[in-house]
Amino acid sequence: MSFRHDLAADTLLKVLDGLQAAWPTLPATTRAHIEQEIMAHGPIIAAKNKMQAPEAIARLLEALWAKRDELPPQVVTVLGAGQGPMPVGGRQPLPMVPDRQRQALLERLMALADFRSFVDARETALEVIHLTAGHEDRLAGAERAVLRRLHEALSRGDDPTVCLREVEARLSGYPAVRALLEERKAFVMEQPKAIRRGEPALRPPSSPSLEPLHAMIEVSDVGGEAAPDADLERFANVYFPATVLISQKDVPLVVHVARQRSARSVLVEDASRMTLKVGDLTIVLHAEGFAMTESMGGLPAEGGVAGRVVSVQPNRDCEPVVFLLTPQSVGEKCIHIYIDQFGRNILAQQFQVRVVADLAAVSDLANVSLTPAAVVSPARGASAPPSDLELRVMLSADRQKLAFMLHGGGKYHYKPVGETVLTSSSPRDFLQPMFDRLSSLAGRSAATRPEADTEAIRQELTALGNTLYDRLFPKELKEEYGRTIRTQFAGKSLLITSDEPWIPWEIVRPFAVDADGNLLYDDPPLCEMFRLARWLAGPGVPDLVVLKQGVWVAPPGSAPEAEAENRYFQELHRRQWQVSLFGPLTRVADLQARLQARNAQLFHFACHGNFDAQNPDNSLIKLEGGYFSPGQLDARTRAGLTAARPLVFLNACHSGQLGFALTGLGGWATALLGAGASVFIGSLWEINGKLAARFAQEFYDRLWGVNAFEGRPQPLGQAFYEARMAIKQADEANPTWLAYVLYGDPYGQVALGG
Question: Can you name the CATH fold of 232-361?
């Protein structure tokens, strides 16, 4: 008996389907045997010579039949059904396999074992080493050892394929590595490219310890970038105030080794110019008359010196380094900066600063000149879509009337849709009891809440949303909603642009009844009905966040669930090499230094907050040893926000709530967006810690296209909406899912790594 020629391909397809269904339950030895057979026969089935594929299919079936005692019964049955008597005249050539059927076979085979080969394994190995060169600090020890073995194989002239397989097994959790290896694999092994004439051989490592991987690369050209031994011109840009007040604490001194000199650097051009090579760079600081309280950026220098280590790469600036200095005495002081590479001093410079006790003597306290700059929108030009519908809300001068206008969707062109007179002399006082009630409800988890209470809370939230709709929406807007908006714009983006700070639009729940009291519709809240976002009146909403560096803040004493966010960002930093993430920051000084450094495009807070209804600019974020408030966004901090245009997520209670301060609109949203933030996310009332941690992870996974959404980033509004719906599904009666507010472009995008 043998397998029937006309059924061989169909039989193998059914066998592979059966194996895939039973795969998780098969013993490891059985899976290993099957993978071995697929690795042996799969490349022949995939070969360009289609005459060989039928024979390979038959041999694979025969090999599986020989191991039938290890296979699931249903698979053995399929194998038996595919057999028949030997054809007359002995074994005949098997029929050709149609391309579509052959492609289906390859897909099923690949689902069980990846039998593709690396295209030019040596070149691929060089690309892997080059890719990982700037990220070795994120790798575990075993992962570094794999790369060392790959380097040693290249140094000896061995075929690196085996090591590349090990790299794939160990480092496939890093998207950048996985994408590179996928690009360099094919079903058929191609002939290796000829080694370029004059290409230096890789030297063996000089010691058993792992050297920085970028120091190992000696090829003349990898991926079209500059050779590692090429001379690279760089400038040491140093930022520090010329005059410091003796009472100041943690004054940031920033050293940024970059491809261009900054006119704001305290060092003149000739004094800051350096010639460097690819490799580690150590920046050491000696500050006369100052105590150094903290340093950040790059990695700590060895030996406990006051220094940081950054990486020099051919086509990008080094990571900025920040030293926090506190003056100890008044007078003229000298600050020395030393920059070393490969054990040799490259640059030694000094500059003078003055420490004074009299505030009147300070003319350059911040060393920053802040020129207000309008937000440029859209950054993506014509490719950036506007929101589907925009509702503009305008507050009267006496703050007693709201006027509404609709625009967008090809339906509305700045159409007035009524006015609402505010009946309360203090709308904030009217809403505060509601926020207090919602905060208390958010503190009760589903596990401790009786089912009867759950249903009662659902009804209470519905009634609350209906009441707000009835009181806030004028007659004309209600008519437009019922006639057009709820049908033509449901599920689309809605941007509410307003100059009022306190209305919780997210929980407004539209409804309508007819003259006889019959319910016509009772829609979900606006935040569920639409991809809802807000923006404050002023410069237009930016549509792009270029994310290269991020910071997360999680001080000790935060909710226990904040540790989940901490672990999330740590793992994200380890795996996602397009973005460098730093944290957790715990102290006010560390946070201020990062805000002022101009190089972080994400600030995520997982901590306690407290809204000050009497003075919104004093709404505090609790950090280690102190608090941080909107009123502390001084000129330097605002300049940093203006330069970085970050996304700021305050995952703390009350952080999204706004109110009127002495100088106009107060609160975090107004302060941060006014300073140049591209996106602000906060909560209007107390939020449940467990749900808050999940919301953050669901949001970032979608916005960045990571984890379950690998390679599929979503627009800002969609990511925010789906994260909201995820925690609603987890506990609909907990109003945390209604608490979150998004200030940003619903169609805004995040560009990882620029």
Answer: Immunoglobulin-like (2.60.40)
